[in-house]
Amino acid sequence: MSELVLTILHIGFLVLLWVFVFAVIATLRRDIYGVRVRKRGQKPQAVAPVNYSRQQARPKKQAAKPARDVPSKIIVTDGPLVGTTIPLGNASIIVGRSPDSALVLNDSYSSARHARFFQSEGHWYVEDLQSTNGTFVHGQRIDHPIPVKAGDSITIGQTTFTLQR
Questions:
Q1: Of 63, 61, 107, which is closest to residue 82 (Cα–Cα)?
Q2: How confident is the model over 18-53, as pLDDT tens digits?
């Protein structure tokens, strides 16, 4: 082979090697720092004029009636953590292998930050956080936030959750 062909092969090999290195770094970065979680469904609000009078009308708060199908806890029904219960409060719940998750799964099929349960407008939603193996609601893989109710079954890796009132 000529010297030119060998030089081109060497340069091509080095470029391929650097592409591989950057791909590994990007994957590690995504696993370490997780996925940016954005609130969905919120539209930008227009700025209202400010009323500086002393007596401002305050809106009356109406007592929200709890719906029958709104879950109050997540129960692990299948997998290594069977019987684990997580109460649903106002904060979102992250599920995954990461130690900072609310529910840590020691499962090679789950990602560091695999899925998120969150509440919006009085309903609970589950969202896959771009995991490798996916999140399943009633056996169907989801790719966007899905509303869930009491009795729904969510599968992450080898673990199955059921939402209950």
A1: 107
A2: 999 999 998 888 777 765 555 555 544 544 554 545
Closest CA to 123 of 46, 64, 59, 61: 64
Q: CA 9, CA 16: separation in Å to the nearest integer?
A: 10
Question: Quick one: tokens of 46?
Answer: 């227009």
What is the average pLDDT score of the chain? 81
Report in angstroms the alpha-carbon separations of 25 from 28, 40, 62, 161, 162: 5, 29, 51, 33, 36
Greatest pairwise CA separation for the chain in angstroms: 90
The neighbouring-strand residues paired with 124 are 119, 148
Q: Is the pTM of this model over 0.90?
A: no
Place of tokens 């009356």: 60
Torsion angle in degrees (nearest 10) through CA of 62, 66, 67, 70: 130
CA distance 7 to 22: 23
Distances (CA, A) of 125 to 50, 92, 96, 132: 35, 10, 16, 20
Distance separating alpha carbons of residues 120 and 108, to the nearest angstrom: 30
Bridge partners, residue 148, by sequence: 124
